[in-house]
Amino acid sequence: AQARKVLRYYREGDSGDDPWQPGHAKARVLALHASDQRFIVVHRLSFTERRTTAPVYVSPGSSDLIFAHTLVEHVDPEFGSEPSVYVDGASRTHVQNSVIRECFARVGNDGQGLNYMNTTDTRIVSNELYNCSRLLSSVFSPNPGLVIENNDVYVDDYTDCQGNSTLDGPCSKSKGLWLMNAGTAEKPIQYLHNRVSGMRPCDTSVACLYGGVPYAAIGGGYNGPMSWSVIQANTFWDNSGGLFHVIGPGGYSENVSTVGNLFGRHRPVSGPSACYGWYNDGSTDTNRGHEVYLNTFVDCGVDNGWMERGGVEASDVRCNTVIASTAGTGTFGAG
Questions:
Q1: Are β-strands 158-159 and 171-172 bridged in parallel, bridged antiparallel, or unpaired?
Q2: In the chain, what's the furthest Cα-to-Cα distance?
Q3: DSSP for 191-233?
Q4: HSE (side-chain half, CA atoms, 13 Å) at 326
């Protein structure tokens, strides 16, 4: 087997403190590009310089890279979108016990968190990701074998929707928290034991590409299929929209199991914003093959109810607990 290479920070009398802790003497690295690399561990390094391109980029052909106790922050895309960490076409990449945070907000741009595209057997475990758009994201690509487990994913950079920072305001400087995509029957995607909170509509006077998003802290299906996924034992709390499967151009959602999750303290806005739902955005496709079992919905729904059913068929919604929530809307079946 190939020997593993290690890039790590160490100092005499090292206490093992993490790079985001106050007073830590950070080992700052401008950027890391792993091209066709294998068996590398990146440990306790900091990527904190303001950059217009991804500080950490793992490109196709790479495999068996581990990022542990790593800090990545301050991505500032000059045009369009740019992730803080971009894993593209790699296999068996692990991002664990790390912090990705604080993308710069600018009108018409999206500083993103961790973007994974066309990967295999990626593991994203026990991280803290906050105050970026699309903190966990993949669009247009399958990621068989992906596991996202025990992460804290949130936003707390709120505004008054007119560009002024406000404690617990109705808008934020981020656009969506999490975009889901496709696994396979042999290698489904697993979303397990994560905590997702703080979603608000984006304040387009100070941030966001292509305008703001009024719903869905977590969702998929709009720009590509969302399929063969298990969403289990997660907490979605204090969001303007919950989990949505949106059928749009070139996309659909099928064969997804949502089991044992908690949805609560919902903050509805105009547009589709139930705690859970299926929404057809003018497509002729239909969501199908869904299971929604043993979830708990607390304080969910005003205009749209705790669940919105539109454009879904051949699916089961059973044995859920609904507390202090508005009745669901829509009907099962296409449309």
A1: antiparallel
A2: 65
A3: EES-EEE----B-TTT-BTTS---S-SEEE-SSS-EEEEEEES
A4: 18
Q: Are 169 and 200 contacting, i.e. CB atoms less than 8 angstroms apart? A: yes
Mean pLDDT by 10 residues, the chain (335 residues): 84 85 82 95 93 92 97 82 91 97 83 92 97 82 94 93 89 82 93 93 82 66 80 92 76 89 79 73 75 92 72 86 79 42
Cβ atoms of 320 and 292 closer than 8 Å: yes
Phi and psi at residue 296, to the nearest 5°: -120, 130
What is residue 228's predicted lDDT score, i.e. its pLDDT?
93
26 three-class SS: coil
Find the helix or strand (DSSP H, E) in which 313 lies.
Answer: strand 312-313
Q: CB of 262 within 8 A of CB of 230?
A: no
- The encoded tokens of residue 49 equal 């310089």
| DSSP per residue, 283-304 | -S--EEEEEEES-EEES--SSS
Whole-prediction pTM value?
A: 0.92
Spacing of C-alpha 263 from chain mean position = 16
CA 214-216-218 angle, to 5 degrees, is: 150
**Among 176, 172, 184, residue whose Cα is nearest residue 220:** 176
Query: Partners of 142 in the beta sheet?
Result: 182
Pair 314, 289: CB distance under 8 Å = yes
Of the candidates 266, 278, 285, the one whose C-alpha atom is nearest the C-alpha of residue 317 is 278
pLDDT at 50: 85
Alpha carbons 37 and 247: distance in angstroms, whole number: 37
